[in-house]
Design goal:
Blueprint lengths: L1 E3 L5 E4 L2 E2 L5 H12 L5 E2 H8 L8 H16 L12 E4 L2 E4 L7 H17 L3 H12 L14 H24 L3 H14 L4 H13 L3 H19 L5 H11 L11 E3 L7 E3 L23 E4 L2 E4 L2 H16 L3 E6 L6 H14 L4 E5 L10 H10 L27 H17 L4 E6 L6 H10 L8 E7 L6 H11 L5 E3 L6 H12 L5 H11 L3 H9 L6 H12 L3 H13 L3 E2 H4 L10 E5 L2 E4 L2 H9 L3 H14 L6 H10 L4 H17 L3 H14 L3 H18 L5 H17 L4 H17 L3 H13 L4 H18 L2 H14 L17 H11 L5 H13 L3 H18 L2 H18 L2 H18 L5 H12 L7 H15 L2 H18 L5 H12 L2 H14 L2 H7 L1
Parallel strand pairs: 11-14, 11-15, 12-13, 13-14
Antiparallel strand pairs: 1-2, 2-3, 4-6, 5-6, 7-8, 9-10, 16-18, 17-18
Helix pairs in contact: 1-3, 4-5, 4-6, 5-6, 6-7, 6-8, 7-8, 8-9, 8-10, 9-10, 11-12, 15-16, 17-18, 17-19, 20-23, 21-23, 21-24, 24-25, 25-26, 26-27, 27-28, 28-29, 28-30, 29-30, 30-31, 30-32, 31-32, 32-33, 32-34, 33-34, 34-35, 34-36, 35-36, 36-37, 36-38, 37-38, 38-39, 38-40, 39-40, 40-41, ...
Length: 1006
């Protein structure tokens, strides 16, 4: 017989499907198949079959289902013959089957074998086993019982891992073109799986699509940051760096399998191809290897990849022929430090090391680099052919330079280098080659093609050299020499920066501090070290370096850079002008027609060099002339830094708040509104700003929070000062304060404000808001008929056109949502109102409205004891809260999830669900407390925790009396009555439910 659960449940005997009975019987078989060959207790099976709520007849019904399954699985078994498949044990049952009879067991074994083969380097065998494993899946596992949720999740995860492994094996076998479509679909469906993303990047790179590979990394980084608040792991970051450096290892010929009769296949990897110029591969770095390297008193961090390349070249130079490696990067990036490490490692191995430096101070003497080399290699005297390195080249009797003397000198230097490297090898470090004199570059061009016949390694460090034709020509010739390598150290990543900070301070920095350092310095080790060791910011060393370079520029270029530093970001040349090539070491063209500083620190140092008067003038000039290129927030900033431009500062600060609200950047909008409130002088303007702040805080911090109440306090004060306030201002204030009063459980105040609002001769939206507030207060008071009347009237007055574009500007209107709660309690279907809330949010393009509809779906699920709906709402609310940075949605989603788990019998414990409930109110919300406590009390009652249930019901009733929040008073009496056996409590609760018209609650008493 064969049993299949990797898809719809299926049982076959000799290839023919066997019917196994109705839904409950099929569920029983699924439970046994998920955990085959294990004794499962009858109590556990009953709980699992009825999702934690087995009926009183569960034991008898379970025996009936077991008997039915036995008849289906073993139809020929005699009446008294023992069961061979579904065996009975004391207190339980076991499905005894061979391991290969269940597809899930076969899948796990095949997937494990495939993973082992892949780890051993046998990609063909791994691919074969993965394909066989995945072929067993016929769809999704059709077992929805909560008791085996973890088992099913494990199978689903194993399937995803197998699909990743299959892609890895295919890429390793060189079938990247073939596997690309499947990999892309997999990564699209599972964007958080970094290993699969890495394989897609590798496949694209090997298919010649490097740009797409880098784009796949950028997309993954964005998804991880936006959805989970984390950055990619080190393996994915390392692959990204290798693709950037075009340093991805080539495909290795798949290992050949040696078949031994009667044994499993053994993997024998072939020897990699070698020629006399190939360096032996350095040993792979392990995860435990230290990131920091000490050399000549210099601590180098985060350079594992670069040092691995340099180590390989060093070994190759000694054993397979000399070569040149160029280390190219900006000033301070760590080129010389890398050379020091190479030199230290060479010296430790007994290889002589010679340093020659090119000072970047203007014209150096001819052959200055090689003069240092010759002096180091021939300290006791100079051969005649090398005399030109200590004086003029040879002249004939007619005082003419011997035209062949230069070439004899070149040849003599080459011979000297070859001879010095003959015994133990030789390392020549040519530091700052970009500053070398032309003659030194020519000699390097002569020497490089001959190095492969020696044991010498030339390590040249230099800055980007694209604008120097002599250096370009020299490096082009060097690149054609055998074994040439080029290393481009980039800025340190976040992990390396953290290591650097620990080395200087002895403490571990926060992730935010590391991010700030990376942003300011680009990961440049010199800049980082200066920032960490200097008491001033920016450090004098960086400021003086930039100042020296600035003072060498012409006036027009200096003006351009000054304006660019004031801008604080890259700008179009139309706004700041075009800098001359002399400023290339400070600025660069970041996009066509756009210039920016190479590092934020350069911009900071340039800005620090400006006098206060010039700064103010440049801020005003930039705002006046480049307004079309700047955002409202930037214009507000620049006018704020200018002199005598207060009116423009206020105008653009308010516009910046509007712009941020339109873009749903609510935190930014709050910052601008805070600033505007301090700039405004008229009470009406201040009131409008404070009301906007309240509306935004309701979204960002959470409804009814203490922060919202504090923000509303000035509105109370300003309303009193306004006296003859405009009706629109008065209406907005009453509505905002009424909404806050509802959330703070001050229901009498909310009703009073709503009545005042209704008495005004306002527009349709004012009437809607008034009836909405009255409906909300009636709901919390338990007057359900009144609540439905007011909420329905509010919808009758609602003009959708007035809601468009008002997210974050006015209080939220949750009319459909509250009516859904009311109708749910009255025994009606809440879903039409929830669907209408979602549709209204779509029509008015209200993102907060979309979120709120999902939140209220969770509250309705709590009222109706709908566990599945609560779990769906929990997922939605958590996702919305994380993506939108809205803590209230996350905490409420956590509570929905914990409540559902408790009611299913899967909770971590009563403490966890109570902590989740308390989290909703931590920021100051007071309303709904009795609702959450009632849900908690009922869940504990269902779980059999009667003492906790009674205590929670007591707490809820006390809160209800204190707050006037009577909407679930009947439910609290019901739970306490059942928990304590108090018939009076039950009678009281039944009477309250009937009086309120809460048919949903009244039915529970029956």
């Amino acid at each position: 017989m064969r049993f299949a659960i990797l898809g719809p449940l299926r049982v076959e005997r000799d290839g023919v499907e066997v019917p196994v009975g109705g839904p409950r019987q099929r569920d029983l078989l699924a439970l046994l198949l998920v955990r085959p060959n294990r004794v499962l207790t009858a109590d556990w099976l009953a709980d699992a079959l009825w999702d934690g709520r087995p009926p009183a007849s569960a034991a008898v019904t379970l025996r009936t289902h077991v008997a039915g399954l036995r008849r289906a699985l073993e139809p020929g078994r005699g009446h008294r013959a023992p069961a061979e498949l579904l065996r009975g044990h004391a207190g339980g049952y076991e499905l005894a089957v061979p391991p290969d009879a269940v597809d899930a067991v076969r899948f796990t074994a095949l997937a494990d074998d495939a993973a082992a083969a892949l780890a051993a380097g046998d990609a063909p065998l791994a691919e074969h086993r993965y394909r066989a494993a995945l072929a067993l899946w016929r769809g999704e596992v059709a077992v929805g019982l909560a008791a085996v949720r973890a088992d099913v999740a494990g199978l689903v995860e194993a399937r995803l891992v197998a699909r990743e492994g299959l892609g890895t094996a295919a890429v390793a076998l060189g079938r990247h073109h073939e596997v690309l479509p499947d990999l892309r679909r997999f990564v699209t469906d599972h964007p958080e799986r970094e290993h699969a993303r890495g394989q897609l990047m590798l496949a694209l790179y090997r298919a010649g699509r490097q740009t797409e590979a880098l784009a796949v990394y950028d997309e993954g980084r964005r998804v991880l940051l936006d959805e989970h608040g984390v950055t990619p792991g080190e393996p994915l970051r390392a692959l990204h760096r290798r693709i950037l450096a075009q340093d991805v290892p080539a495909l290795v010929t798949p290992p050949r399998a040696v078949v031994v009769p009667g044994a499993r296949q053994a993997v024998v990897p072939p020897a990699p191809p070698r020629d006399r110029h190939d360096a032996p591969a350095p040993p792979p770095a392990t995860a435990a290897a230290p990131r920091a390297v000490e050399a000549d008193g210099v601590r180098v961090v985060g350079r594992e990849r670069e040092l691995a390349v340099l180590d390989g070249v060093l070994v190759a130079a000694r054993h397979a022929g000399g070569r040149v490696v160029a280390v190219v990067g900006e000033a301070g990036i760590g080129k010389t430090s890398l050379a020091r490490v190479v030199g230290a490692r060479a010296a430790a191995a007994g290889t002589p090391v010679v340093w020659a430096r090119c000072p970047d101070i203007g014209q150096t003497p001819p052959f200055w680099l090689w003069t240092q080399v010759v002096r180091a290699l021939s300290p006791d005297g100079v051969e005649p052919a090398l005399a030109g390195f200590t004086g003029p080249f040879a002249v004939d009797r007619a005082d003419r330079v011997d035209p062949s003397a230069r070439f004899r000198a070149y040849d003599a230097v080459a011979a000297l280098v070859h001879a010095a490297a003959a015994d133990a090898g030789l390392v020549l470090v040519l530091d700052d080659l970009h500053a070398a004199d032309p003659d030194s570059l020519l000699l390097l061009r002569y020497l490089a093609p001959t190095l492969h016949t020696s044991r010498a390694l030339v390590v040249a460090t230099l800055r980007p050299y694209e604008h120097d034709p002599d250096v370009v020509a020299a490096l082009a010739d060097v690149a054609r020499s055998p074994g040439h390598r080029r290393v481009h150290p980039a800025g340190l990543d976040a992990d390396a920066v953290a290591d650097l900070v620990r080395g200087h301070t002895g403490s571990t920095p926060s992730a935010a501090a590391v991010d700030r350092l990376v942003t300011r310095t680009g990961g440049n080790p010199f800049f980082l070290t200066e920032l960490l060791t200097s008491p001033e910011d920016p450090p004098p060393s960086i400021r003086d370096t930039v100042r020296r370079r600035l003072h060498a520029l012409d006036d027009a270029t200096r003006d351009c850079l000054d304006l660019l530093s004031v801008a604080g970001r890259d700008l179009d040349v139309a706004a700041v002008g075009t800098p001359s090539p002399a400023a290339d070491h400070l600025v660069t063209e970041t996009a066509p027609g756009v210039v920016g500083f190479r590092h934020p620190l350069f911009a900071e140092a340039t800005y620090a060099d400006l006098s206060p008067t010039r700064r103010a003038a440049l801020h005003a000039r930039l705002a006046d002339t480049a307004g079309g290129l700047l955002t409202p927030a930037e214009l507000a900033h620049h006018y704020g830094r200018a002199r005598d431009r207060a009116a423009e500062h206020l105008r653009w600060t308010l516009e910046a708040a509007e712009d941020a609200t339109r873009r749903l950047a609510f935190e930014d909008a709050l910052t601008h509104l805070d600033r505007a409130a301090g700039l405004l002088t008229d009470p009406a303007g201040k009131l409008a700003a404070h009301l906007r702040r309240v509306a935004l805080l309701q979204i960002t911090v959470g409804v009814g929070s203490d922060a919202v109440a504090e923000a509303a306090a000035p509105a109370h004060h300003l309303l009193a000062r306004l006296g003859g306030a405009r009706p629109a201002d008065l209406a907005a204030t009453l509505w905002t304060l009424g909404e806050l009063a509802c959330n703070r459980a001050d229901f009498p105040l909310a009703a009073d404000l709503a009545t005042r609002l209704l008495a005004m001769d306002g527009d349709a939206l004012t009437r809607t808001a008034a009836h909405y507030l009255l409906g909300v207060t009636a709901y919390f008071a338990g007057r359900l008929a009144d609540a439905e009347d007011h909420l329905t009237t509010a919808l009758d007055h609602l003009d959708e056109r007035l809601l468009r574009g008002q997210t974050g500007r006015r209080p939220t209107l949750a009319v459909h949502e509250f009516r859904a709660l009311v109708r749910s309690l009255r025994g009606l279907d809440a879903q039409p109102d929830l669907a209408a809330a979602r549709a209204l949010a779509e029509r008015t393009d209200d993102p907060y409205g979309r979120a709120n509809a999902e939140l209220f779906a969770g509250w309705a699920a709590l009222q109706e004891h709908d566990v599945a709906a609560a779990e769906r709402a929990a997922r939605e609310c958590r996702g919305i809260g994380v993506r939108g940075h809205m803590a209230h949605f996350v905490t409420t989603g956590d509570f929905f999830a914990e409540w559902a788990a408790l009611r299913r019998g899967d909770a971590a414990g009563p403490a966890a669900v109570r902590a989740a409930a308390d989290g909703i109110y931590r920021l100051g919300l007071r309303a709904t407390r009795t609702i959450t406590v009632a849900a908690l009390a009922d869940a504990h009652l269902v779980a059999g925790h009667v003492e906790q249930a009674a205590a929670l019901a007591d707490e809820g009733l006390t809160n209800a009396r204190a707050l006037g929040e009577h909407v679930l008073t009947a439910e609290l009496h019901r739970v306490r009555g059942l928990a304590t056996g108090d018939a009076h409590d039950l009678d009281t609760g039944r009477a309250i439910a009937r009086a309120q018209g809460a048919h949903l609650l009244a039915a529970r008493f029956d």
